[in-house]
Amino acid sequence: MTKDWNTRTRLVHGGTRRSQWGEVSEAIFLTQGFVYDSAEAAEARFQQAGDDEYIYARYGNPTVRMFEERIAALEGAEDAFATASGMAAVSGALTSMLRAGDHVVAARALFGSCLYVLEEVLARFGVEVTFVDGADLDQWRAAVRADTRLVFFETIANPTLEVVDIAGVAEIAHAAGAVVVADNVFATPVFSRAVELGADLVVYSATKHIDGQGRTLGGVILGTREVIRGTVEPYMKHTGGAMSPFTAWVLLKGLETLDLRVRAQADTALALALAVQGHPALARLVYPGLDSHPQHGLVTRQMGGRGGTVVALDLAGGQAAAFRFLNTLEIVLISNNLGDAKSIATHPATTTHQRLPEAQKVALGITPGLVRLSLGIEDAEDVVGDVARALDAAGDLR
What we know:
Elements: H1 7-13, H2 39-47, H3 62-75, E1 79-83, H4 86-97, E2 103-107, H5 112-124, E3 128-132, H6 137-143, E4 148-154, H7 166-175, E5 179-183, H8 188-191, E6 201-205, H9 207-211, E7 219-223, H10 225-239, H11 245-276, E8 282-286, H12 296-303, E9 310-315, H13 318-328, E10 333-334, E11 344-346, H14 358-364, E12 370-374, H15 380-395
Parallel strand pairs: 2-3, 2-4, 4-5, 5-6, 10-11
Antiparallel strand pairs: 1-7, 6-7, 8-9, 9-12, 11-12
Helix pairs in contact: 1-3, 1-11, 3-11, 4-5, 4-10, 11-15, 13-15
């Protein structure tokens, strides 16, 4: 029914289920279990639950199902499984597909917790992982083998904003029979074409843009119905990473304004990048929406030229200048989230990526002066002025 609807209509109405009372806002079914009319009915449902039949909240719930169907309609995926957090989505997507002896190829520029899952958890259970420069297709070609089961990457890397060629990597992986798992948080569901470009599974931290208002943790895994219901769901429902009904309701409300918020955030990100590029306090500015970004052409093909909601600033004065910059900000908050309605600044080297060895930080471009700016929905002029004043203060340390 939703296939002919445009994005904002899907985000408001997709997957809606109404009770006999005809409520306007989606109902929250805060129940862990469900009642059957008879013992025979319970037996039949456990043997094969129908599309709108439920057994236990860890397996599925009407409110959660609304969220899954709505985000799947937006992404252009056949189905989705909602999870308790973004990392539950990442770990669930990877672990449900892998077993001891499998080989994985992953981009090395990843969020710290994703690296932990790959380097520590999967390795502990006998999965071999090879890391490559995600932007270099030749490295993907060299690393993918006949026994490669899965490839994994962030479509835009956290926090250095390196962009991976989804279609290029998918072609290499699929030629070897490998599954493509793409973490698409920075690209956002609004600008995503990951499924169309060849990703088999797409994961999101719904904590970020989908909620986008700092209220709750959540995640989602999207893909074909066969993989989601046949492989992902059995693993997730038995290991306990399912989303709560209340979280699903919060995220449904977030989806209603997602397109409006993300487009405004991306506009502010571009305005900021244009305003402060060349500032003497900066050693480097990275924003995929600028012509100066090394993969700007790829961004145009994958995201319609929109560069997303995050800008990376590398302060020339190192950590001292970065801290002066952060401590001077008045509107932009210091925190470690992103994709929020409020603009947020993060110092990755000492927070989100602090556990990485120094040599690995250097290799990834996570310098002492690097600050990740996630732009919110405040007035763009106010945010640009706040950041410019903080850069002026940081420049005094040079």
